[in-house]
Structure formats: C-alpha cells, structure tokens
C-alpha cells in the first residue's frame, strides 16, 4: 500500500499547479531549487497519473567552479596578480619582494611563468618589470561567465576543466506543462464506495481513484518452509521424475529385526552397540513380525526362521555368521538408525507379490528422520534425514548402479562422481559415493550404496535373479552446502534464526 502523502508532498503538488497557472506553461525544476529531485519527481508522478500535468525529464551538464576558481573570480588569475604587483612597483620588483607582496608562493610561481609567456613582464637585471600598461584577465572573465551561467563554449570548458578550475556535473530537470485535466487544486479522489457516500448521493459527483493494477501487495506474514523441507521437495521431484514411489516412513521406532537382522547385520555388529544406537526401554520388547493387513498372505514365521537360519548356519549358498542368534535381541526396540529398515519391509512386501516365481520390478524412495548416538559437533546431531532409494529389477549390474547414480546426481548438477569400495553387512559390493566440491576444493563423500545380498533378499522369498540396488545420503549435507551453513545448529534446534527460515528462497538443486 502506498504511504499516505505527507504535508510537504501536498504543498509541492499545489505549488507546481500554481506555478503553472501564472507563468508560461513550461516550467523547469529550477523553480524549486531547495526541493530534492526525488520529491519533485514523486509530486510530478502524482499529478501526471491524474493527467493534471505532463512532464519531461531533461538531462544536461553544468559547470561548477572549484574553490581555486572562486578565488580567481574574486582576486584575479595568478598571472594577473603577478602582473598587477609588478606594474604597481614603478621601478620593478625583486622575486623575493614579489613573493611577499602577492603573499602566496604558488600564485607567484605559476603566475610569473604565465606572465612571461604572455609578454606582460620581463627580467631587467634581477628585477621584474612590466612590459604593458594594462592586461585582459581572460581566465577570470571566462570563470565569471561560468559562475553566472554555469556553461560556456565547450573548448573553454574543456580547457578550464583540464586546469582543474571547474568540474562538470549532470543535472536533471523537468519541463512541466499543463495536462488535459489541469486545475489549480488537486481533487480528493475517493478510494471506496461506502454506505455514507451511497446514502448521501455524493458518489454521483465524487472522483474515484482508478485501480492501480501494478501496485504490489503488502508483505504477508505466512508460514515458511524450512530449508530442509525445500531441499527435500527438490529431491522428491527428482525421484518422481525417475519413476520412484514414496515409501511410508511414518514410524521412528523399529524392532532390531527390521533395522538390523532382516538386513543380515549380525547381532554382535558394533553398529548395534549402545554407543551407536538408541534403544527404547518401554515397552521392553516388540511383537514378532506379523501380517500388516488381511490381504497380507505372507508367511512371517517362515521369514523369521529364514533370517535366524541365515545368521546362525547360513542358507542360500552362504555359510552365515555361525553364532547363536537371539530372538530377544531381534525384538528389542530401537530408534531406527537408517530408513533401510523401511526399504527392507517394502522389499518383503514386494516378495508377497510373487507369482509364478516372479515379482514386478520396483523403484522406491523415502526421505525421513533417522537417529544415531553420535557425539554432537558442528556437522553432526543425534538425528538427521536420510534420502534413500531402492531399485529392484532383473539383470541389473554394478555398472548400471553407477550409471544410475550419475544420472540421479546430475539432476542436481553434481557431476564427476567417484566410487570407492566400502563395506555394509547388507550389500555386496558396496560403494561410497564421492564428488568433487568446487567451493571446498576437495572430494567429499555424498552417499553410500550397494547391491543387496542374497542372504537378505532370498530369506524374504524374492526370486534369485532379482537384483536390488540401494543407496542412501543425508538431506542435511546438501542443504548446508546449498544455503552456505557451516554449523548444523543453525539449521536444526533452538538456535535456528526464524528470519533465516522465513526469508530464504526456494532452492534449485540444478544451480550451483
Ligand atoms: N543404510 C545406508 C545407506 C544404504 C542404503 C541402501 C544400500 C546401501 C546403503 C546408510 O545408512 O548409510
């Protein structure tokens, strides 16, 4: 909304209207020498929008005198001052006397040189004597003209400018003339049709302010998406573009079974230590996996047995880990340490679609919170968001996984990936994904990936020739890079600046 007109702005519009009434209908900004340019322009725009005046903006160059030139205008040029001093002394002056008479070393020195050149003075022995009776102080005359008119012959202006006696300034002025709706007073324009104006009939004669369809609306105080949500949105778009469906991840608590055992993570694995994983003590134990709906015809008991067996003694061509697998351990409750627990449950559901020994190919993704018992520092919290994708299909190869990851990351302008062999209990082979970061000038790890092991997939009843890729990365890292945040506590937690959340633009993952 436009601010209400201040009194001085009203005065100015009325002054402009009056000035136009009793003068020639063309008038320039110099009529209001004390008023700043912006105010005149604003007043003119108000009048012009009502067709009361028309105006044109005129730009020209004006010359203004430098302080030294002001001195010349009042006392004469250096050479004229030297000449006058010499002429006044009837039998000439020594240089020292000249200097004390003029009272300025520079004036004496510069003026002498010029007076010699003009042949106004000459040297007679060691005295200076005048050669003429009077001189024309051209410089002073030129500067006087400029002082009054602010301009002169271009050649003269250029010469004086070179001598640093004046500077040129751009001056903007307005040529104003009466518009078709010119009047002495600005009529108050009504902005609303009210009950009163209708009842009194004053609407018939009132002038209504036209709609300004170009006006900007007032800032709205609305909610704002957190930067993590904006980046999450970008990732979701990429997944949808690539034919993925979103997995339901709305549970933070998992059993050890879905978080670890089903993934062929042995029960002694360090990731399952208290130091790494948060355990839930109440309730003390999860129920055994069971059908999730009436339509779920899977044999969970058999799956549970398969998992136990593949850990304890091996199956599906694997010799297993050879340790006594504990059912209680697998039924402990944990805050999920990765969303791969959900991917696993989804793959088991996919196995339930098996018909004539085949399941359909599938692409799943999720972006949600996971929890790890980490030491909190500038880049780690006890929780973060994991971006995870799973692709199940026939005839997939490791090269295909690399190619897919290159395509996926290229969609966010992350190119030149490097892959490094890694270890996950549930994938073989496994690869860490690295990318060269221009800003940090080094390779940084951006994700983890691999091909799920048969020990995991076959225990679910998935066909032997089905290959399943998996990959995961954090949402926080790309968000911190995109928004230039170096401390994760500026992104999450009580230290987050709400203005930062409110004012940040949407992120474009395809821009650097
Ligand atoms: N679960 C892995 C990511 C991953 C998912 C699927 C396959 C391979 C790796 C992690 O937390 O880092």
Automatic annotation (TrEMBL):
InterPro entries registered for this protein in UniProt: aa-tRNA-synth_II (IPR006195), aa-tRNA-synth_II/BPL/LPL (IPR045864), Phe-tRNA-synth_IIc_asu (IPR004529), Phenylalanyl-tRNA_Synthase (IPR002319), PheRS_DBD3 (IPR040725)
GO cellular component: cytosol; phenylalanine-tRNA ligase complex
Main location: cytoplasm
Compartment list: Cytoplasm
Subunit structure: Tetramer of two alpha and two beta subunits.
Protein family membership: Belongs to the class-II aminoacyl-tRNA synthetase family. Phe-tRNA synthetase alpha subunit type 2 subfamily.
Protein name according to UniProt: Phenylalanine--tRNA ligase alpha subunit
Naturally occurring in which organism (per UniProt): Canariomyces notabilis
Lineage: Eukaryota, Fungi, Dikarya, Ascomycota, Pezizomycotina
């Amino acid at each position: 909304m436009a601010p209400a007109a201040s009194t001085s702005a009203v005065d100015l519009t009325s002054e402009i209207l009056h000035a136009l009434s009793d003068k020639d209908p063309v008038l320039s900004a110099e009529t209001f020498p004390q008023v700043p340019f912006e105010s005149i322009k604003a007043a003119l725009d108000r009048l012009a929008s009502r067709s009361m005046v028309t105006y044109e903006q005129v730009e020209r160059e004006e010359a203004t005198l430098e302080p030294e030139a002001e001195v010349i205008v009042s006392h004469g040029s250096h050479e004229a001052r030297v000449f006058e001093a010499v002429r006044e002394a009837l039998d000439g002056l020594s240089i020292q006397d000249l200097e004390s008479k003029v009272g300025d070393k520079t004036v004496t020195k510069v003026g002498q040189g010029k007076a010699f050149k003009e042949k106004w003075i000459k040297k007679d022995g060691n005295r200076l004597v005048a050669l003429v009776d009077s001189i024309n102080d051209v410089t002073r005359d030129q500067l006087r003209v400029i002082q009054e008119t602010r301009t002169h012959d271009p050649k003269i202006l250029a010469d004086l400018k070179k001598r640093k006696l004046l500077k040129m300034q751009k001056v903007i002025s307005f040529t104003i003339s009466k518009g078709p709706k010119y009047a002495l007073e600005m009529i108050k324009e009504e902005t609303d049709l009210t009950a009163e104006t209708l009842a009194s009939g004053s609407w018939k004669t009132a002038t209504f302010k036209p709609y300004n369809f170009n006006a900007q609306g007032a800032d709205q105080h609305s909610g704002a998406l957190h930067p993590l949500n904006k980046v999450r949105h970008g990732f979701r778009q990429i997944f949808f573009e690539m034919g993925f469906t979103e997995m339901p991840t709305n549970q933070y608590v998992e059993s050890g079974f879905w978080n670890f055992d089903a993934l062929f993570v042995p029960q002694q694995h360090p990731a399952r230590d208290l130091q790494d994983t948060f355990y839930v003590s109440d309730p003390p134990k999860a129920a055994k996996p069971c059908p999730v709906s009436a339509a779920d015809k899977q044999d969970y008991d058999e799956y549970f047995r398969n998992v136990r067996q593949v850990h304890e003694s091996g199956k599906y061509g694997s010799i297993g880990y050879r340790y006594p697998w504990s059912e209680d351990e697998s039924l402990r409750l944990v805050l999920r340490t990765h969303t791969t627990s959900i991917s696993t449950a989804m793959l088991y559901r996919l196995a339930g679609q098996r018909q004539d020994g085949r399941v359909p190919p599938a692409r799943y993704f999720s972006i949600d919170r996971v929890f790890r018992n980490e030491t909190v520092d500038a880049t780690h919290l006890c929780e973060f968001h994991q971006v995870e994708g799973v692709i199940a299909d026939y005839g997939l190869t490791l090269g295909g996984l690399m190619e897919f990851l290159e395509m996926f990351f290229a969609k966010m302008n992350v190119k030149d990936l490097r892959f490094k062999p890694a270890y996950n209990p549930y994938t073989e082979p496994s690869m860490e994904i690295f990318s060269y970061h221009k800003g940090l000038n080094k390779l940084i790890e951006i994700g983890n990936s691999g091909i799920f092991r048969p020990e995991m997939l076959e225990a679910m009843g998935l066909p032997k020739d089905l290959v399943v890729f998996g990959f995961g990365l954090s949402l926080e890292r790309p968000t911190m890079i995109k928004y230039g945040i170096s401390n994760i506590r500026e992104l999450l937690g009580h230290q987050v600046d709400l203005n930062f959340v409110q004012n940040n633009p949407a992120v474009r993952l395809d821009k650097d």
